[in-house]
Specification:
Blueprint lengths: L4 H9 L2 H9 L7 H22 L9 H22 L8 H6 L7 H26 L5 H24 L13 H17 L3 E3 L3 H8 L7 H24 L5 H9 L10 H25 L6 H24 L14 H24 L17 E3 L1
Antiparallel strand pairs: 1-2
Helix pairs in contact: 1-3, 1-4, 1-6, 3-4, 4-6, 6-7, 6-13, 7-8, 7-12, 7-13, 10-11, 10-12, 10-14, 12-13, 13-14
């Protein structure tokens, strides 16, 4: 009897360290171009094996190949993280030398842990639900936000940081991993959202309440405003604003923002130019009834902020970051608290929208009953 598809994907993913071990012991495969070529060959073989795995399925969602293929690379990331932290050895030395040397940085190590644990668990859960006929749209949007947040910091960070002068051919393997999540996100956003019908009376009653009558939304609005202010401030810091407050913060509180690897600077600029507008429209959505887009975009944004903040916080404390750029011991609590809140607020907002969506919906037509499903 053939095992479930999600189990087959997990088994395939677990073969990644073996592939790395073999390449690490074959000198002919350790040059820049052969590394890129072997990466493409291995990816092609993974896709072929996935096609064989689901050949008896009547209909396969095209996103299955995305989630299953990316699962393999998750194990590559986890292998890298474990080797850089000294838990294993003999897998990644060749790749770090002539492939992607930036993967030894603290930011990349934290990124690899996230990829190898959080993304892998998301993929396996999504694939399990996919073949059980259950909805996975919200989990998919969470991953899409996380993956896009990962790549829009990772790729520019390498290009403008100290590793930008040593980009090898293998680095360009990141291009499909940058583009595919955008395509996957567009598919997921275009699919109908399913949720139990909420009666028109309840929707109307919720939408009549002002912000002061909704204490949870009021608190979230204040937290969003705080996140906006923090994003603006740190954007000014990495843009070398001459204000005394910026100078004091970067040298006495969060010197990691000046780390020449480039990742923290890009992260703050992404927050300044992309997260800040989204935080603004979310504040508007909490104040204005009927903004149904809040139900999807808050999930997407929560994934992006969780991933980028995990990497940023972890890297600012990691031993691979030079001591002068780590968060000072006496400033640890205020800096880490603010950074954790910046990751937590979008997650809390997404949970609020999901658990009580009535305020964000349009009124239900009178003919519908509570037993029906509404595609909003």
């Amino acid at each position: 009897m053939r095992p479930p598809v999600d189990v087959c994907v997990l088994i395939l993913s677990l073969s990644a360290p073996g592939v790395l071990k073999a390449m690490n012991n074959i000198p002919a495969l350790q040059e820049p171009l052969p590394i890129l070529g072997m990466g493409m060959v291995v990816l092609g073989l993974v896709i072929l094996l996935l096609l064989l795995t689901v050949q008896n399925q009547k209909k396969v969602d095209p996103l299955f190949y995305v989630f299953a293929g990316f699962s393999f690379t998750c194990m590559v990331g986890l292998t890298n993280a474990l080797e850089q932290d000294g838990f294993i050895s003999g897998f990644m030395a060749f790749y770090l030398k002539t492939g992607e040397p930036h993967l030894r940085t603290a930011y990349a190590v934290m990124m690899s842990y996230w990829d190898g644990i959080v993304h892998l668990l998301l993929f396996l859960t999504i694939i399990h639900r996919m073949f059980k006929g259950k909805s996975y749209r919200s989990l998919g949007l969470l991953w899409a936000g996380s993956s896009i947040g990962h790549q829009i910091v990772h790729i520019p960070g390498v290009a403008i940081g100290k590793y930008g002068s040593n980009i090898q051919p293998a680095f360009w393997r990141n291009v499909p991993f940058f583009l595919v999540p955008f395509w996957a996100a567009s598919l997921l956003f275009s699919r109908p959202r399913e949720m139990p019908v909420i009666t028109a009376d309840k929707i109307i009653a919720e939408q009549k309440k002002g912000l002061l009558s909704r204490p949870v939304d009021l608190l979230l609005s204040l937290l969003l405003l705080g996140a906006m202010a923090f994003s603006v401030f740190r954007g000014f810091v990495v843009l070398d604003c001459p204000l005394d407050a910026c100078f004091t913060y970067v040298y006495q509180y969060e010197p990691y923002l000046k780390d020449p690897v480039g990742f923290p600077r890009v992260t703050m600029l992404v927050y300044f130019f992309y997260a800040l507008p989204l935080l603004t429209v979310f504040t508007y959505g909490l104040k204005t009834p009927g903004c149904s887009w809040m139900l999807d975009w808050t999930v997407f944004f929560a994934g992006a902020m969780a991933q980028t903040q995990w990497c940023h916080i972890g890297a600012s404390l990691h031993s691979r970051t030079p001591f002068t750029y780590r968060v000072p011991a006496d400033k640890w609590w205020p800096v880490i608290t603010l950074n954790v809140l910046l990751a937590a607020v979008p997650a809390l907002l997404a949970l609020r929208c999901r658990n009580n969506p009535a305020y964000f919906l349009k009124p239900v037509p009178e003919g519908q009953t509570s037993n029906e499903k509404k595609k909003n």
